C-alpha cells in the first residue's frame, strides 16, 4: 500500500513522517524530492535558484519522480510493503501548478491540469493521501520563508490547488487539522493509516 503525506511547507509533514517510523518499523519510508540521487540534487539546486525557469524546474521534479518510482516505490509495492512517502506527485501538482500559473512566458490554460497530464501515463496513485491542512499565513510563519516556495501569497495558491485535488479525488484524501498539537496530529494520522490498512486488507 502506498500512503503519502501532503501539505504546505510548515504543516508538520516531515515531523509526522519521522514519528511514524517508530510505529511502523517494517514500512518503507521515502520522500520527494529524493535526497539520494543526482535527480534530487538537481531539484534542490533549482529550489534555491529564484530565477529557475518554472517549466524546466517542473521537468526536474518529474525526472526525480520517475526515478523514485522505478528505484524505490515499485520494488517495495511488488514486495507487498507499506510505503510512506513525505510528499509525492500531489506536491508537484499543487506547487508547480502554482509556479506555472504565476510565471510569465508560459501560456497554459490550466497549469495544474498540465502538470497532472504529464504524470498520468507513468505515475502510481496512492491508496491513501493524508493532507495536513494549514492556512497559508501560519504555514509561511512556521516555515520561516527560507526559499521561494515558502511565501504566504504563493502558499495560498498552492493551498487552492490542493483543494482542487481533494475535490476531484475525495475518497483518497484524509484531511487532518495541522493547527492541532503535534501529538494530536500524529494520532489523527495514525488513525487514518490504521483504517486504511484494515480496508486495504
From TrEMBL:
Q: Which residues form the Thymidylate kinase-like domain?
A: 5-188
Kindly list the positions annotated as binding ATP.
7-14
Question: What are the record keywords, sorted?
Answer: ATP-binding, Kinase, Nucleotide biosynthesis, Nucleotide-binding, Transferase
Chain segments annotated as transmembrane: none
Q: Does the keyword RNA-binding apply?
A: no
NCBIfam families from the entry?
DTMP_kinase (TIGR00041)
Q: What name does this protein carry?
A: Probable thymidylate kinase
Query: According to the entry, what is the taxonomic lineage of the organism?
Result: Archaea, Methanobacteriati, Methanobacteriota, Stenosarchaea group, Halobacteria
Name the gene for this chain: tmk
